[in-house]
Amino acid sequence: MRVLGVDPGLTRCGLGIVDQGAQRKLALVAVDVVRTSPDTDLAVRLFAVQCAVEQWLDDHQPDAVALERVFSQHNVRTVMGTAQVSGVVMAAAAKRGVPVVLHTPSEVKAAVTGNGRADKSQITHMVTRILMLESSPKPADAADALALAICHLWRGPAAARLAAAQKAAGPVRTQWKVPGGRS
């Protein structure tokens, strides 16, 4: 299975392709960071990211895209740019029929390091070890994109099986009994 991991960002958007082969062995295929200047018009910046992502989708033909879920930050401007880039990535993947799965930052950190609160250096270190790289991917956006792909390869199939089982089981009905009251 081949996964494109995307660490969305308007100034730096990390892209990483990881293959999973026999015995769940992982291999780096490609990694890069798309950079856009804050001085450039927003539409032009989003188009630049779109073109790069589309090129990666066409060149590498991933089976899935693992995208970091946008979470609330203190800087609304930053979260808006991240959300806009995420939308561009999702649209490019959907156009090609490639499924997109969103992973939270803590989920990715836990999958790669065993600690949902790991810092950037821990993530980079573990990505380097897991993929048996001679040098660490830089900048951190590149390592984060690879971590997203690794997370999806390790957790994605299990999560899909769990979701299918839950759907097959139907809705869960619970009855709460309140002490001294009606149920």
From TrEMBL:
Binds 2 Mg(2+) ion per subunit. It comes from the Bacteria. Its EC number is 3.1.21.10. InterPro entries: RNaseH-like_sf, RNaseH_sf, X-over_junc_endoDNase_Mg_BS, X-over_junc_endoDNase_RuvC. Its cofactor is Mg(2+). Transmembrane segments: none annotated. Mg(2+) 2 binds at residue 68. It holds the Pfam family RuvC. Mg(2+) 1 binds at residues 7, 141. The RuvA-RuvB-RuvC complex processes Holliday junction (HJ) DNA during genetic recombination and DNA repair. Endonuclease that resolves HJ intermediates. Cleaves cruciform DNA by making single-stranded nicks across the HJ at symmetrical positions within the homologous arms, yielding a 5'-phosphate and a 3'-hydroxyl group; requires a central core of homology in the junction. The consensus cleavage sequence is 5'-(A/T)TT(C/G)-3'. Cleavage occurs on the 3'-side of the TT dinucleotide at the point of strand exchange. PANTHER family: CROSSOVER JUNCTION ENDODEOXYRIBONUCLEASE RUVC. Homodimer which binds Holliday junction (HJ) DNA. The HJ becomes 2-fold symmetrical on binding to RuvC with unstacked arms; it has a different conformation from HJ DNA in complex with RuvA. In the full resolvosome a probable DNA-RuvA(4)-RuvB(12)-RuvC(2) complex forms which resolves the HJ. This is Crossover junction endodeoxyribonuclease RuvC. The gene is ruvC.
